[in-house]
Design brief:
Radius of gyration: 55 Å
Largest sheet: none
Strand content: under 5%
Order of helices and strands: HHHHHHHHH
Shape: rod-shaped
Number of strands: 0
Length: about 325
């Protein structure tokens, strides 16, 4: 009987070979997976390191940005402080200039009042001298004629010329006590006004002095009425121009800027040689700015600078224009 079974060693070798062939791909796949996992871990570590580096850099950048922002804030605060100080200094300087200007204007007004009084005294003195000359001429006309040389004076009934005194003029010439029409006395006693006055009005210097005193005492309502009386009684007198100016000042203080501008215009246009013309220009420009008429106010400031370039008021106008960022000179087209 024939045995068909293969030998055992041969079968065993085939089984081992088959198992080896089947196990080789599995081992290769596992090795690749291990390498891939290693590379992934290395990549994750690199990404984590990069993230950490970016976080550190972002932290540094944040610190720099915060420091820069703090520096900018400090600079802004410093700039605001400097701007406030500059504005305060400018306002203080402007206030001092206004105060000095007001004092100068008061001195000018006092000087104008003194001049008016001196003119009144001079005219009164001239009137008195004229009256004295008239009296002397009348006395000469009333003196008795001198006797001829060598003639015997009549002493029988006439009083001696050297011993008798002449009767008073007002009793001898006119027993009623009134001046005689034969004596050339002036028809109106006292100094005449520089301008035609209203009938029965007090002297212009007295009216203006009273109004100015009440204005200095801050009695604006009363002084306004008194300045109006000066203007009404003496419309052409130089002190009427001063009265218009102070009336404008009162209107300005009360917020009546339109009325103040009209008062200043009267001073500028009708009294061009008045001492208040310069400050009327300045305050007119300020009133126009208060009325939001910026271009008109700038034009008035420039007109003041052009007409009175070396005056303190022109200096204030230049400062005002500079604060507005406007040139003092008008641009030519």
């Amino acid at each position: 009987m024939t045995n068909h079974r293969a030998p055992m060693p041969a079968r065993y070798a085939c089984a081992v070979l088959a198992f080896a062939l089947a196990a080789t791909p599995a081992f290769a796949v596992n090795k690749d997976m291990v390498q891939l996992q290693t590379q992934v871990q290395d990549l994750q570590a690199a990404v984590a390191h990069l993230q950490q580096s970016n976080d550190e850099r972002m932290g540094v950048l944040k610190d720099l940005i915060q420091q820069t922002a703090d520096s900018v804030n400090k600079m802004s605060v410093a700039m605001e402080t400097l701007q406030k100080n500059a504005n305060s200094q400018q306002e203080a300087t402007t206030g001092k200039l206004d105060q000095v200007s007001g004092q100068v204007q008061s001195l000018n007004d006092s000087l104008d009042e003194v001049k008016a009084r001196l003119n009144a005294l001079e005219k009164a003195l001239q009137s008195v001298q004229s009256q004295q000359q008239s009296i002397n001429a009348a006395l000469q006309n009333l003196a008795p004629p001198q006797p001829p040389t060598g003639a015997t004076p009549d002493t029988t009934g006439a009083p001696a010329a050297s011993g008798a005194s002449a009767p008073p003029m007002d009793a001898a010439a006119n027993p009623s006590g009134k001046p005689s029409s034969d004596i050339p006395f002036p028809a109106r006693q006292g100094p005449p006004s520089a301008a035609p006055a209203a009938e029965g009005a007090p002297p212009v210097a007295d009216l203006f002095h009273t109004a100015l005193s009440d204005y200095m005492a801050a009695k604006y309502a009363l002084s306004s009425q008194e300045f109006a009386e000066v203007i009404h009684s003496y419309p052409s007198d130089p002190l009427a121009g001063n009265s218009y100016y102070y009336t404008g000042e009162i209107d300005y203080r009360n917020g009546k800027f339109t009325a103040a501008v009209k008062d200043y215009d009267v001073v500028i246009e009708q009294f061009p040689s008045n001492s208040e013309v310069r400050v009327s220009y300045l305050h007119k420009g300020k009133a126009l700015l208060e009325m939001n008429q910026r271009d008109a106010g700038i034009g008035v400031f420039r007109a003041l600078i052009q007409r009175f370039p070396n005056s303190p008021e022109a200096t204030q106008a230049r400062s005002k224009l500079s604060g507005m960022g406007v040139s003092a000179a008008a641009r030519r087209p």
